[in-house]
Amino acid sequence: MVVPNCGCGETVVIRTVTDAFNRNFGKKLWGCRHYRNSSDKGCSYFKIVDEDDVMDERDLLIEKQKLKIEKQKKKKKKNKFKSELSRTRQWLIMALFFGFLCFGIVLILGTILVCKTTSILSGFYLK
Ligand SMILES: [Zn+2]
């Protein structure tokens, strides 16, 4: 069955007319999710529910199940994203560590090189 959309672009909900002066009193109708009265936010969309269009318990259950599956799918996606993020972080830490290691080696080699050059220079000066 098709759930109609209201002016807000959202799926509507089933309401029961509780206004005793309304000629549709007691009837079920599709109404805007946000609808309370005309001054409230939300549009004033409403449509009387056809007898053969009424959502029965089974349809409601199916809708709920669909929502549940959708939620679980979203959760799985989120978890995947999280694990990917932690993996990226691990790589980043490793790269950082490697960088520091290279930097240390270069520093030591540089110091040795500088010491050698100075010793050569001092040897030159001593001549
Ligand atoms: Zn609406």
Automatic annotation (TrEMBL):
- UniProt cross-references to InterPro entries, sorted A to Z: Znf_GRF
Instruction: Please verify whether the record's keywords include Repressor.
Output: no
List where the protein spans the membrane: 91-114
- Tell me the ranges covered by the GRF-type domain, including all copies: 6-52
Q: Name one GO molecular function term.
A: zinc ion binding
> Is-annotated flag, keyword Oxidoreductase?
no
> Which ranges of the sequence are coiled-coil?
57-84
Listed A to Z, the keywords are: Coiled coil, Membrane, Metal-binding, Transmembrane, Transmembrane helix, Zinc, Zinc-finger
- Please give the name of this protein: Transmembrane protein, putative
* Native source species: Medicago truncatula (Barrel medic)
